[in-house]
């Protein structure tokens, strides 16, 4: 069942601009009478003229709603100077109400254009259906635009203009939840490497579990790629790296490693390079973002280590790639474990806990319970040390209870970090990143 209706009156032909109240009245009348659309939220998208006052313009645009008792409390007119701004505002309203099934009623000539905006600003969480905007005038049906072929591709210049409009609008939005904050380790020499771990503040993502500097988009979450790209642009500006040479691991929860410059695997949880100016990154939202730096051979790496990747040895696989590809000495490699879920919060089924217990019994607390507490950081550190990494070359703040500045528990600090364990399916993601300075 349709949960919301979007009426697009943003770009009407000149001969119909003066009849906007009638258009809206007739369309709302049709919606109310249509039995297939029961009590939906209704959003009317209109162009805001330069210098107009929003309240006065909305009053002008509203038709007489006395006959629309079932709609008037769920109807909102959204005026903006661009389609991107209007549609993004409506997306915020949909997300506030957790609505995902939307009927779009619009002029036929706007359909392909609107689809491009929707493809950029929404994810597969949402379902859209389209209907031509028609009005009743003098008892005759008037279709606003001439029909065009279904699925017609917009010219590349129009696509570029839409992308630019969206980008300019997103760049204009204020940062949420405070300033962008980057955590840095004193173990990695900053005269050779640029690195850091992000927190959740300083971006534009507004959905509570994704707010605000979410750095990962997927078809299962409500944050589109364009928003993540804008968050990344702001991070790059603050940190000083080039977002065009940014490479993030393609998570598989395994132990494959990508060597920058070689053929890229379909999926990998580790990535290494010796190229200057290339920024490597690993996400984490409970899983550990692990950074690697060799100041002698000037090589670096990043790995995503969840519980499966930890057991499969993804961190040592990343170390071994640096040794084999760049001639690194394992004793020169520095490793920093980033913010991740701690043994205070993280549980796994007993069968999975057995594998951590076999690495070291201290990796498991309440081992005899159905869901023991697991310390994936300790397991990662033990496996690194067994592989030849010097204990003093591993930063894991959770070893100590004081002077903690990197390895916080993500689940325990909702003000600082995202957490899948704490927030559920629609969770945000922070990253660890590293590059070799030019």
From TrEMBL:
GO molecular function per UniProt: copper ion binding; hydrolase activity; S-methyl-5-thioadenosine phosphorylase activity
Protein name: Purine nucleoside phosphorylase LACC1
EC numbers: 2.4.2.1, 2.4.2.28, 3.5.4.4
Primary subcellular site in the record, as a coarse category: cytoplasm
Entry keywords, A to Z: Acetylation, Cytoplasm, Endoplasmic reticulum, Hydrolase, Immunity, Inflammatory response, Innate immunity, Metal-binding, Nucleus, Peroxisome, Phosphoprotein, Transferase, Zinc
Organism: Picathartes gymnocephalus
Family statement drawn from the similarity comment of this UniProt entry: Belongs to the purine nucleoside phosphorylase YfiH/LACC1 family.
Record localization: Cytoplasm; Endoplasmic reticulum; Nucleus; Peroxisome
Gene Ontology biological-process annotations: inflammatory response; innate immune response; regulation of defense response
Gene3D superfamilies associated with the record: CNF1/YfiH-like putative cysteine hydrolases
GO cellular component: endoplasmic reticulum; nucleus; peroxisome
Pfam families per record: Cu-oxidase_4
Annotated TM spans: none
